[in-house]
Design a protein that fits this description.
The complex is a heterodimer. Chain A is an all-alpha fold. Chain A contains 17 helices and 2 strands. The radius of gyration of chain A is 30 Å and the shape is globular. Classes of the chains: A mainly alpha, B alpha/beta.
């Protein structure tokens, strides 16, 4: 209690004033606009200019969308219905959507199969992408590639099943011999897998109708489905291959080191389109005409090699960024090479490499459209070739390419959003 | 450099010779399907429809050959090829027949080791310009930017034409016809040049076809035809005479509508009888059934029917017969006699 000022000041307030809202210019929308859009004369001018451009674009593009026609069967009919007005001819999408998504030779009654494979893909990659998903789902992830192969290509279930059994046998052989040494385990696993797959190959050959669904040759694959297949398969195959190449490049064994260096440098020195031409054209000269190796398989091998070389370099950057102490600490714990890599080095190196790997993956996914140049009908190939060359739709450009942009954007944007989320999850540095 | 090119050509030739020595007819029969190379898409000549079935003028040739050899016009595996992959696909044995509006030239026939079996469309390179440019002759195109497909004979013809007339141009290279259309319409190039048939098809797809003119000059000969590998003459004969059968059928008035009736019994015209196998042994000479030509004509009709259905004046492409009329009507189509 103080009454020091009791005589000097006429009035002393002894209760708090109720809180007032901030002045209108310092709150809500107005504050946000002042701070973000009209801070200073330069920003104000830029804002007004941008608004003007947005206005022009929207007013010009709006009638194109609003007058869009969805139910004609040719461009000529579209133009007739529009009668000179601006307007899109989205009918090409409603009539040819199945060709854009699945290619033009994939049997329509089998569309459910790749669709189901796509839905299951989301289930299968969930445990890999989200650490919080139940761990039991990883079993399904392991089965998924074989299931997806069966769904998309059809034929008897026994073929993918035999490969799966072979790989499981290989895994057990690996476990048996791993205690002696990691390398020996690898060799034993590989031998066991090959023997079982080779021996088991007789079974599906003798019973081609067991659990069989309509077989679809890979030249019938097309559309966005082909981009998705190439993208997912090649990214998932090139990751382990890239890790091995990156480790091999750092190996102290000269033979392994030089094989890896030559492979990486050669592949990185060659444009992807060249490799695709080799896959399509040149390889055909080296095989007898009837022993054609599946074109999709050839392309998968080439794209995988290409992206593996890039991913190897990204991971090498991650490895190089680890302090020397980490390697020494692993050694001083008495871990052998395989253990130290698996338990100490790679988890850290891979975490550092995530942005780079995602970068390669997004780039690779978009690069799958290059197969249109070697006359495969992926989404871009479908648009450039059959659809624009049909008498009905010759001359429709914006609608088709807009669709392609839209589809690719969704996929690539989701990948990059995911990687940002993952980086935040794994952030252990103290910022 | 030249030496490398020669060595490369020799390697290709050697490899393809090794491949080609196998009897293609037996391979096709054993496979039960004809592997036919077509374009990845060219309006009117080859493109899949909404149901995924290939249609078009070149496709008709494939179907006729399949019908003649296997008796089934649908027993064709269409292998789409681009301008860059078409020749390797044929040389490596991936396809048995290439029907992909390919120009018959000396070097392709001789040096690349192919056998052109005939001409199914006489084309020539032309120019299209916007009307507002006010150009009436290709010789006024000095300094123009020209959209041109790479890897084709049109590219070389263009260079020849401009050099011969001592005028300059700036090429805008493009990959496919589909790519050229928007570029031309947006004004990225003043002139679009390709085969006259392609120009007609392109112009027909424009919103205002009347705003564009095709210049009168045709600067090259572009005889387009199907081709096979060197070295298997029997297979070449089959392809050649199937094409000739379609042409002769039009000349003789045999259509898909009346061919069954005409082939039922020998008629009064001996040439029709020989063609349709009711007289003589022409089919056996080819190693085929006697009614091979009947099946080929039934597949899609005679030459004229194929033309009218795919690229003729009643289609959006609207090509006149022109050089591709029968020789009796002032055109160049002239099938050797069936005797």
């Amino acid at each position: 209690m103080s009454d020091t000022h009791a005589q000097t000041v006429a009035f002393v307030r002894d209760t708090m004033l109720p809180e007032q809202p901030p002045p209108a210019s310092e709150a809500g929308v107005i504050k946000w606009m002042r701070e973000n859009l009209f801070k200073g004369w330069f920003n104000s001018i830029l804002t007004l200019l941008s608004l003007y451009f947005i206005f022009v674009i929207v007013t010009n593009a709006y009638p194109w969308f609003a007058n869009g026609i969805w139910n004609t069967s040719s461009l000529a009919e579209c133009r007739e219905m529009l009668g000179g007005m601006t307007g899109a001819c989205f009918s090409v999408l409603t009539e040819r959507w199945n060709q854009l998504l699945f290619g033009f030779t994939y049997p329509p009654e089998a569309y459910w199969r790749p669709t189901l494979a796509f839905v299951l893909l989301i289930v299968a990659i969930a445990p890999v992408l989200y650490p919080k998903a139940p761990r039991q789902m990883l079993v399904f992830t392991g089965i998924y590639p074989f299931l997806a192969y069966w769904l998309i290509w059809g034929g008897t279930l026994l073929i993918p099943l035999m490969v799966l059994v072979g790989l499981i046998a290989g895994y057990f052989a690996f476990k048996q011999f791993e205690r002696q040494s990691f390398a020996m385990g690898m060799v034993a696993g590989l031998v066991a897998a090959i023997v079982v797959i080779w021996a088991g190959g007789i079974i599906p050959a003798s019973m081609p109708d067991v659990l069989a669904i309509q077989a679809i040759p890979s030249r019938d694959l097309g559309g966005f489905m082909l981009n998705m297949i190439l993208g997912t398969v090649c990214v998932s195959l090139s990751l382990p291959l890239g890790i091995m190449l990156a480790l091999g490049r750092q190996s102290s064994m000269p033979v392994i080191k030089w094989i890896c260096v030559v492979f990486i440098e050669f592949i990185r020195g060659v444009p992807l389109i060249t490799l695709l031409f080799v896959a399509n054209v040149v390889l055909a000269y080296f095989f007898p005409p009837d022993a054609n190796i599946d074109l999709v398989l050839r392309v998968i091998i080439m794209i995988t090699m290409f992206s593996a070389a890039y991913i190897a370099e990204v991971i090498r950057g991650g490895l190089a960024a680890l302090p020397r102490g980490q390697y020494e600490a692993a050694d001083s714990l008495g871990l052998d090479y395989a253990q130290s890599m698996r338990l100490i080095i790679l988890p850290q190196a891979l975490k550092i490499s995530i942005p780079g790997i995602v970068n390669v993956a997004v780039g690779l996914f978009k690069d799958t459209t290059l197969v249109s140049v070697i006359s495969m009908f992926d989404l871009v190939g479908m648009i450039r070739g059959p659809i624009l060359a049909s008498t009905e739709w010759n001359g429709v450009y914006w609608e088709l390419w807009g669709f392609a942009v839209f589809v690719f954007f969704i996929v690539c944007f989701s990948i990059s959003k995911y990687s940002q989320w993952l980086e935040r999850q794994l952030a252990t540095d103290h910022r | 450099m030249k030496k490398i090119a020669i060595l490369g050509a020799m390697t290709v030739a050697g490899l393809s010779a090794g491949v080609a020595s196998a009897a293609t007819l037996d391979d096709v029969k054993a496979r039960g399907k004809l592997n036919c190379g077509v374009t990845t898409g060219l309006v009117g000549f080859a493109a899949p429809n909404a149901n995924g079935e290939w249609e078009g003028f070149d496709v008709g040739v494939c179907r006729a050959v399949a019908a003649a050899v296997l008796g089934d016009p649908t027993a064709v595996e269409f292998v789409p090829t681009t301008g860059k992959t078409r020749f390797t696909a044929l040389a490596s044995g991936e396809i048995d027949l290439l029907a992909r509006n390919t120009t018959w030239t000396f070097s392709r026939d001789v040096d690349l080791g192919f056998e052109f079996v005939g001409i199914n469309y006489y084309d020539g390179q032309g120019f299209m310009v916007p009307k507002e440019l006010g150009v009436s002759s290709a010789k006024e195109l000095d300094g123009a930017t020209v959209c041109i497909q790479t890897g084709t004979t049109t590219e070389l013809n263009l260079a020849d034409f401009f050099r011969a007339n001592n005028i300059s141009y700036e090429p805008v290279p493009i990959e496919t016809n589909a790519e050229a259309q928007p570029l031309y319409l947006e004004g990225a190039c003043d002139v679009y040049t390709t085969d006259a048939s392609g120009l007609a098809a392109t112009r027909a797809a424009f919103e205002n076809p009347g705003d564009h003119v095709v210049l009168p000059e045709i600067i090259s000969k572009e005889p387009l035809g199907p081709l096979v590998r060197h070295g298997d003459n029997q297979w070449g004969d089959i392809a050649r005479w199937t094409l000739n059968a379609l042409i002769a059928a039009e000349e003789l008035g045999v259509t898909s509508a009346n061919v069954a009736e005409l082939a039922a019994a020998p008629g009064s015209n001996p040439e029709i009888n020989r063609l349709l196998g009711t007289e003589g042994t022409l089919g056996a000479m080819l190693g085929l059934e006697a009614d091979w030509a009947v099946k080929a004509i039934m597949a899609g009709g005679n030459y004229g029917e194929l033309f009218e259905k795919n690229i003729g004046e009643n289609t959006p492409i609207g090509l006149a017969r022109g050089l591709n009329a029968q020789w009796t009507e002032g055109g160049l189509l002239y099938s050797p006699p069936f005797r």
